[in-house]
Design a protein that fits this description.
Layout: E1 6-11, E2 14-19, H1 30-45, E3 51-56, E4 61-63, H2 79-94, E5 100-104, E6 107-109, H3 111-118, E7 121-125, E8 129-131, H4 145-153, H5 155-164, E9 168-169, H6 170-176, E10 181-183, H7 188-200, H8 204-217, H9 222-237, H10 240-250
Parallel strand pairs: 2-3, 3-5, 4-6, 5-7, 6-8, 7-10
Antiparallel strand pairs: 1-2, 8-9
The structure holds coenzyme A (COA).
Length: 260
């Protein structure tokens, strides 16, 4: 039987997905990527799941990148297909129709930083280290790093990190906007749960539409993005939750959203 490098459990509607290959600091080998892909297929079908947290096993590493031991077998002509496979999985995580939070508990290097960037929000433990060290191997980031990092933190800072393998700590990641919260070591998952519970108390269709408007709108011009925002809000205005939210406000009571 194939070794399990990815496991998840569900707590109060929150799926906690753990990358677990501690001897290699949770590096992403081929089976891990396949299992991550399958996990998100399962979570997509499971309507009990309202939100997801991705973390790494242990206290040292979130994910220390793609598995370098696999690189010797990959030839130049095979690399685009290899990279496209990883990109497709990361795109699937980014497009997951419910909120996804990265709880970064240590090294987030290469594919680890790229995985964190696919998540909606990133919470880092204070021992987290972020970087894109691929140039040390004569390579460039392959799972979206050259595209998502400059979009998140600007091209100059992204080039400093990618060209020079400048690794940044959690506080610097917070300052640059790569992460949204820094918490004491060992607390990232707990903080992610707390934030996710707050998000899940809001109208689920509204959260889904906000994610769609932000993610898809970033690919558009401002006017196309504004049009998308209006369309997405049209869907929200058509829900029972919109009436419940307005009534709850006027009646000075908490809203009881149904997700429809
Ligand atoms: N792929 C495969 N194995 C990896 C790995 C990776 N990306 N990152 C770490 N490992 C393995 C190491 O080879 C080592 O295995 P070993 O015990 O069999 O020798 C084990 O994980 C522990 O790593 P080690 O380097 O001894 O730990 P450290 O605390 O000294 O350093 C890092 C930690 C993360 C700084 C260092 O492991 C590192 O630089 N890793 C590579 C990061 C990288 O380049 N990622 C991008 C890949 S494209």
């Amino acid at each position: 039987m194939e070794k399990q490098y990815v496991h998840y459990h569900i707590e109060e509607g929150i799926a906690i997905v753990t990358i677990d290959n501690q001897p290699a600091l949770n590096a992403l080998n081929a089976p891990t990527l396949n299992q991550l892909d399958k996990t998100f297929d399962d979570l997509t079908k499971n309507q009990e799941v309202k939100g997801v947290i991705i973390t790494g096993a242990g206290e040292k590493s979130f994910v220390a990148g793609a598995d370098i031991s696999e690189f010797l077998q990959i030839k130049g002509n095979e690399a685009p297909g290899f990279m496209a496979r990883g990109q497709k999985i990361f795109n699937k995580i980014e497009a997951f129709d419910r909120p996804v939070i990265a709880a970064v508990n240590g090294f987030a290097l290469g594919g680890g930083n790229e995985l964190a960037m696919c998540c909606d929000i990133c919470i880092a433990a204070e021992n987290a280290i972020f970087g894109q060290p691929e140039v040390n191997l004569g390579l460039i980031p392959g799972y979206g790093g050259t595209q998502r990092l400059p979009r998140l933190i600007g091209p100059g800072k992204a080039k400093e990190i990618i060209f020079a393998d400048e690794r940044i700590n959690a506080q610097e990641a917070l300052r640059t906007g790569l992460v949204q919260r820094v918490v004491p070591k060992g607390q990232a998952v707990e903080e992610a749960k707390k934030l996710l519970k707050k998000i899940l108390s809001k109208g689920p269709v509204a959260i889904k539409m906000a994610k769609k408007a932000i993610n898809e709108g970033l690919k558009f011009s401002l006017s196309e993005g504004l049009n998308l925002e209006a369309q997405c809000n049209g869907i929200c205005f058509g829900t029972e939750d919109k009436d419940e939210g307005a009534k709850a406000f006027l009646e000075k009571r908490p809203a009881n959203f149904k997700g429809k």
